[in-house]
Amino acid sequence: MTGAGIRATTIAVLMLLGGCGDSGAGPTATADGASPTGTDPEPVRYASVTGDAEAGERSFLQCKICHTIEPDQNRIGPSLHAIIGRKAATVPGFAYSPAMKNSGITWSEEELFRFIGDTRGTVPGTKMAFAGMRNAQTRADVIAYLTAAPQ
Questions:
Q1: Which of 31, 60, 87, 117 lies most in the core, judged by the most C-beta atoms within 10 Å?
Q2: What is the per-residue pLDDT for 150?
Q3: Is the pTM value of this prediction over 0.85?
Q4: Which of 30, 4, 20 is nearest to 142 (CA)?
Q5: Is residue 114 within 8 Å of 76, Cβ to Cβ?
Q6: At residue 148, what are phi and psi to the nearest 5 degrees?
C-alpha cells in the first residue's frame, strides 16, 4: 500500500472509531437537539446555546482531519471558509456526493447545528463519514469559531 493509501485508511479507521465524535462536557442532544434519553420535553435549539469561539477552535481540531478554514484548500472534505450563507456543494474543486448536491441547503448557523449533530440524518446519502457531535454546546462552539474566522 502506498503512503497515501495508508493515510486514507488510517483516517477512515479513526472516523469509524469515533475520532470525529463528541468531546467535552455539556448538554447532549440528538440531531434535532432532543435529549438522547427522551427525558427532555423540549429539544435543544441552536438559538438557546451561546457558542464560544475559543472553545470552538479547540473542538475544531477533530474536524481538521478532513476540513480547513483556509480559502481554496480542500482536504478529504471541502474548505469551510466563509461557509455561512453559502449554498451546499459549491466549493470549487471538491467532488460532492449527489445527495449533498441535491440537498438544497444554504448553510446558516441553524442548519450547520443540525447537520453537525447528524450528518447522515440531515443529508441521507452524504459521503461524509462523521459520527456527529451530539453535544449541543460543542456544536455551537464550533459554529462560533467558524463564524469568527476571517472571511
A1: 117
A2: 82
A3: no
A4: 20
A5: no
A6: -85, -20
Only one residue has cell 427532555, namely 40
C-alpha cell recorded at residue 110: 441553524
Closest CA to 126 of 88, 106, 97: 97
C-alpha count within 13 angstroms, C-beta hemisphere, residue 2: 3
Higher pLDDT, 20 or 52: 52
DSSP 25: -
135 touches 24 (CB < 8 A):
yes
pLDDT of 128 reads: 92
| All cell numbers assigned to 29 | 442532544
Domains by residue range for the chain, with CATH: 3-148 (1.10.760.10)
What's the rounded Cα separation, in Å, for the pair 88 and 108? 10
Which are the contacts of 94, defined by CB distance < 8 A and separation ≥ 6?
74, 77, 78, 79
Amino acid at the residue 56: G
